[in-house]
Amino acid sequence: MTPLGNLIRLYPLPITHLPGHPEFEAVQSARVGPTPRPSLSSFIKEALDQATLFADDVSNTYKETGEKSSTPATARVALLKRQITSQELSDIQWGAQTIPRLAPRHIANGEAWFARRSVHANEKRDGTADFAEFERLRLNPPEAEVQYTPDVVDAFRVLDWESEIGRQSFEGYTDVRMWVYEMCHHLPWPVYNRTFSILVISAKTSGSSFIIVRIPLDLSTLPQAFYSSGRHIREGDTAQKRKPLVQGIYTSIERVKTLPNQSIEWMMTMSSDAGGSLPMPMQKLAVPGEIAKDVGFFLKWIGEGRGA
Question: Are 248 and 237 in contact (CB under 8 A)?
Fold first, then answer.
């Protein structure tokens, strides 16, 4: 079993732990952290390495719990889960890894991780997609998600490192991209909508594979944030975006790769806490079915786009 990393965890990363960005210089609380800011190249490389190792270990550390269909996908969706205990989290070398971070003050509960895995024909036809179509997930994951997922109300881009990344190289990864986004999700009444503040990193790992990482952030001190700062109440351009929100936490790893037989494997694993008054046992029951639906949502969106 691969040792657990300290970055892709269900504990929001403070912006003081991120690589430098011009937007941070205007905010006193964003300038100085407990340790020097990591370089952009070392941070991205470590986050992608941790994600790759964790994804590689899914088949060894997760338990299969069944499978579901996800219309219109022709492939079945296998469902898996893993419970990471509070002791395992306490044993992480939080401050002694390549990118050090402060250990969480309280590790009362473990992390419940869920995964889905599906294998698709590498073809441009109904119910599946070819690799080039799957790459639309990678080019801008939050913007794609708001297009194909019905309950995602908004993907607000807070900032990105596009110009800075253009001058860097990352061993083992190409076409690297990194953004900070706030995702707004609609939940049915009487539950409040949710917002999730995330750092998103995507990269090609070969000519026929890529990986996407989402790391939760604390944006409460960043005025440029839209939902975390409360600006959405005054400035939202739709009624949904102006609604009161509850801050949730979400982290995930997504990987798409072409298999030796040229079919495409799409694996996603995630852990979340929707916060508010939703009991965690209820959340755990709902998550497997919800993540399976995303396969069908994506392939439906791709299919509709072919006819546009």
Answer: no
